[in-house]
Amino acid sequence: MRFQGVIPANLLPFKADLSIDEAAYRQHLSWLTGTKGVTGITVNGHAAEVSSLSREERVRALAIAADEVGGKVPLIAGIYADGSQEAVELARDAKAGGAAGILVCPPTLFMWGAQVKPDMVLRHFSTIADRVDIPIIVFEYPPASGIGYSPETLAELAKLPSVAAVKDWSNDIVAFEQNLRAIRQTGRPVAVLSSFTMSLFATFILGADGCISGMGSVAADLQAELFEAVQQRDLARARAVNDRLEPLVRIFYAPPFVDMHNRMKEALVLLGRIPAAHVRPPLTPVSDEERCCIQLALKASGLLR
What we know:
It is a single chain. The chain is α/β, with parallel strands linked by helices. The protein has one domain: Aldolase class I (TIM Barrel), CATH 3.20.20. It is 46% helix and 11% strand. It is built from 11 helices and 8 strands. Helix 7 (200-206) links the parallel strand 7 (191-194) and strand 8 (210-213). The protein is globular, with a radius of gyration of 18 Å. The mean pLDDT is 97.
């Protein structure tokens, strides 16, 4: 399967008791899939606070998405697991739930030296690929995080028949270009999907096939317009759209980085798309002052009048 275009990673609304707010979730998914240029949805990603979700909740979140928007756009299920066997089990859940592909996050164990043991990385992905027949998207993290992969390792992963795409969150434009070139040089039809939201324009110019972005939950329309403008080589229009995205990027990804999706939830509340911005511990709600800053950023972007 060819993954391309703008693929938002949905936020997951919660009720005050921190259970999944199904009605709000359905409304959010409906807006995303109704947005021109959206070509897929990623569920159970970081934007959905996946680390706080039980296996049963992940299955339920995918089931709701499949029921609400299945058949309109493909669904990609995030696989967030520290062990290969657990990843296999979650991948089986994803396939059974109707996912068109899986987005495999690196186990946290990789931060202790997997960058210099590519055989360890290849074994993890090969284990998943051998046991579950489903397209795989490799999640590339920033090299400084300790769990990013070298361009050479990405090239080896791209040779696996099940690998259909790489979501690149290298967060470094030089690293992004090196990764892009390494993957292209394999000759396999592996898509490169940017997650470098702080410099999305640059990655589109370099040749990204699209993006997977939590910020797409708020600004999928602007991201789709940016991608379309670059594809049409209309750089003046692309720069104008990028200028609208800039205030959102600046507020969502301000320190501390851990609050990025909390802020995006607040933005959806301000836009009237979800009723509340509840987040699960250990995350904490944003302050009143920061909420005002988010409102100003939404107005500067033209999303809020």
